[in-house]
Amino acid sequence: MINKWLLVAFVGFTGGIAFRSFFDFGDTFVYFLTFLAVTFFILTVLSIRNRHYFVVAGIFIFALALGTIRFDIGDILPPLGEHIDTQIVLEGAVVREPDVREGHTKLTVRADAILPDRQILEKVNVLLVVDKYPEFQYGDVVRVSGILDEPENFAQDDSDRVFDYVGYLKKDNVFYQMFYPEVEKIGVGGGNIFAQKLFLIKNKLLKSVSLTLPEPHASLVGGVVFGAKQSLGEELLEAFRAVGIIHIVVLSGYNVTIVAEWIGRLASFAPRGIALGLSVFGIVGFALMTGAGATVVRASIMALLVLLARATGRLYAITTALLIAGIAMLVHNPKILIFDASFQLSFLATVGLIYLAPHMQGIFSFVPKKFGLREFATATIATQIFVLPLLLYMTGQFSIVAVVVNILILAFIPLTMLFGFLTGVFGIVHIILSLPFAYIAYALLSYELTIVDIFSRLPFASVSVPSFPVWVMVVVYALYGLALLYLVKKKPVQL
Fold it and tell me: Domain locations in the chain?
């Protein structure tokens, strides 16, 4: 029964956050929801016949109110409105890893004070677009002088889809931006010391890889292994999008979940306890290696839940863990529900792996079980099915060859990650020591790039889908949910 009540609470809580993300009816609406929930709980005590329905309604509405309240708590008002379009001088610290692009770098700076009166600010981040040089690092304390601007939403490519850039930045408390301001480094130590050390190690590994492998192989290792945002070039990125494999470059939650599934399969030869330990070690190590950013940590938690499902084989326990993990992440940052595509993709991919993939085993009986090929094929297609409506809504691109390309490439991603990582590690000691691993990594990367090149050249590789309203996507996922309930009741999932 706890699972049922928890599911109702989860739906209500996420519904409250989603509703409040778009509408704000003030405190009166929250009071009304609370009153309504209390009324249903009272009816539960007084009623004999319909007690079950009153409990469900009470829990749902109360959770709805809690979701609205949690969003309100984190929805701070931007404090620098009077400074828009004016010259301003700020002091603060670089609080996220620099996002290095082809012609510029994006820095997220926590604005601590306004000069010259040193007005103290709280929870305000500013996005800076600066030249690639001089380079800045996470934790650098900087003085910034430039024109303060507000971000704006923009159309995606030539379609009528509008990217909610304001919401995307707002989830990280970024309310303002500056284009090519004067930035002066005035100190260090402005960030978390643990994260600072992780980024330092990561940058050393990236530099080692770039000295050993040519481009675009080195940048692809940076994206696949370390989550680095160095650009592969717009032409190559477009090719990755066309064949539906862009997630391996940007280190999305979807990617982490697939990697977790493959690690679990590779470790299946060992006793269950050892296999679980190796898998957990691999995922935790992967998160630390990529800098343990919020996106990767959330995706890794989802990945660990997949491993827990495989280890326990108990659908009841993993469902409870998945719902609790989802609620905990939303309590920490409710804005990720609507404005963070990585959270959405990782959650959906996890659901697909846990609930849909086992039911597809029979369909793919023609695929041999050797080396876990059948499990990998079903995992890949199950996740593709579950993330497809969201990807179509966000990008408007439907890759006809995505399933084939994902199967051809994703099977080699864990090995690419392993040898790419070893190339970086041994390259730090001496470049000659890294060469054996670099040759293998180069071969794997060349294969993957060749597959992308071949399939992206096909005239039917990708088609554009007209934009559609969000309610269509919601209805599709509701149908997905009903289909899963039917499948689980008809044949319980064997994890």
Answer: 2-74, 81-191, 202-490
